[in-house]
Amino acid sequence: MRYDMNGPEQPVPHTAMEARDRVRFLLGSAGLAGVGPDGDDVLTDALLVTSELATNAIRHGGGITGFSASVSENGLRLSITDPSGDRPVTLPRQAGAFLAGGFGWPLIQRLSHSVTVTLLPAGGKRITVLVPLAARPAATDRNGNLDAVLGLGDAGLALDLGLDRMSRRSDAAS
Q1: Residue range 39-82, pLDDT digits in tens
Q2: pLDDT tens per residue, range 20-35
């Protein structure tokens, strides 16, 4: 079964909160919000990706000019359009240095099965993601340590390596 939040009767959200509310309603209508042992994690991931895409469109892309969300057996498909033709970038990180911002795009890539950036003929871009609606196993490093992957211990380097890997995946997908 497929659930959509599209159409002319649905105005384009102007804030990240409005976009999240749409996705929350959509997932609830599909019976997916908070269902099962992974339900809250699924909802959190979907709302985080929605929030980051919307915030990036507003902050870096000149505002949200198009919005589409649907749920199918493959997951949440979310598209956000903005008037900027600039592709998202991953900021380089140095181990031990903390920069404010720059975490949204890598999070979007990590939490999504696919990320597509389409430059539009009339100008602007559309970013479409597919967010899985089932939990995935926790990632660990070669020794089985979850902390190193999440950047919790002495893991600035592990986190930086993860971001570099994600930026290459995005470049290859574009």
Answers
A1: 567 788 999 999 999 999 999 999 999 999 999 888 999 999 99
A2: 999 999 988 888 765 5
| Residue showing tokens 């870096």 | 60
Beta strands in 42-162 (DSSP E): 66-72, 75-82, 114-119, 125-131
Confidence of residue 1 (pLDDT cuts 50, 70, 90): very low
Strands 75-82 and 3-4: unpaired
- Give burial (CB, 10 Å; 0-12/13-18/19+) of 85: exposed
Q: What letter represents residue 108's amino acid?
A: I
Q: Which positions ≥6 away from 93 have C-beta within 8 Å?
A: 99, 102, 156, 159, 160, 163
Nearest by Cα to 114 from 148, 139, 77, 84: 77
Tokens 């002319």, residue? 8
Strands 3-4 and 66-72, bridge-based pairing: antiparallel
